[in-house]
Amino acid sequence: MGLANDDLDRRLQFARETARAAGRITLNLFGSRGLAVDRKADDSPVTVADREAEEYVCRKIAEVYPEDGWIGEEHGTREGSSGYRWIIDPIDGTKSFICGVPLYATLIGLEYESRPVLGVIELPALGESVFARVGGGAWHVAGEQPPQPARVSATSQLNEAVFVTSEAKSFGERGAEDAYRRLERACWITRTWGDAYGYYLVATGRATVMVDPIMSVWDAAAILPILEEAGGRFTDWNGNATVHGGEGVGTNGHVHEDVLKLLRG
């Protein structure tokens, strides 16, 4: 079975609708006082909102695409037989969610035979989303407005670039403090508008560079097709276009090689 655009379009529509519905589940608990927060084995936080949203997505996949597999951050892996595998992060930016910061996302990506083919970044508390499938362009939706093309910025110099990241201290966790300082000095401004929201800013032309020193596949799977279809690039720190590298660099493409050189030192 090969890729067909009409099939990808149907799957993208399914992903958009499912991400929107899962996002509404998270909104039911967003900003709740006394929200219980558990710690996973890696000490990262998780809430009932994460679990309920992912359960919903997995249930919908099983109903509509029963032969597909999936990877979910909270509920593990299911093998499939179709060649398609959904990759789900019900709340990307759980720390922001817990703190009542609206810059969190629901992410749904799809691979076909290990190649990322579509992605959705749903921002439930902002009422916005960006989505793409290979060959179909990237699109931005704000509120009830019709989709508009999502395009990266034309910035070609790092001294004019907006650099965003999730947490500066994560560079230290992989021994890359110097890389962070090099990027901060080279770019115009640096902000911690991170997690998927940072890549959303790159895809829609508001930021130029987003870097994650540590990244899981469910954080990355939706990002690569969106950035590429928006005219940008997403790679690991060695320049490989992959969502399995354990790290991420998203840019408008024009400054990508400059960023990689700074990361490598």
Short description:
The chain has 265 residues and is of the alpha+beta class. Helix content is 34%, strand content 26%.
Write the layout of secondary structure elements.
Layout: H1 5-27, E1 38-39, E2 45-46, H2 48-64, E3 69-72, E4 76-78, E5 84-92, H3 94-98, E6 105-112, E7 115-123, E8 128-133, E9 138-142, E10 148-149, E11 162-165, H4 169-173, H5 177-186, E12 189-191, H6 195-203, E13 209-212, H7 217-220, H8 223-229, E14 233-235, E15 248-251, H9 256-264
Parallel strand pairs: 3-5, 11-12, 11-13
Antiparallel strand pairs: 1-2, 3-4, 5-6, 6-7, 7-8, 8-9, 9-10, 13-15, 14-15
Helix pairs in contact: 1-2, 5-9
The helical percent reads 25-40%
What spatial form do the alpha-carbon principal axes imply? Answer: globular
CATH topology of the largest domain: Fructose-1,6-Bisphosphatase, Chain A, domain 1
How are the strands ordered across the major sheet?
4-3-5-6-7-8-9-10
User: What structural class is derived from the secondary structure elements?
Assistant: alpha+beta
Q: Provide mean pLDDT, rounded.
A: 95
Q: Taking Cα atoms only, what radius of gyration do you get, to the nearest Å?
A: 17 Å
Q: Indicate how many domains the architecture comprises.
A: 2
For CATH, the homologous superfamily of the largest domain is named as: Fructose-1,6-Bisphosphatase, subunit A, domain 1
Distance between the termini: 44 Å
Query: What's the count of strands?
Result: 15
> What's the CATH class of the largest domain, please?
Alpha Beta
Task: Give the SSE string.
Answer: HEEHEEEHEEEEEEHHEHEHHEEH
- Relative strand content: 25-35%
Runs in which pLDDT lies below 50 for 5 or more consecutive residues are none
The DSSP helix count reads: 9
CATH architecture of the largest domain: 2-Layer Sandwich
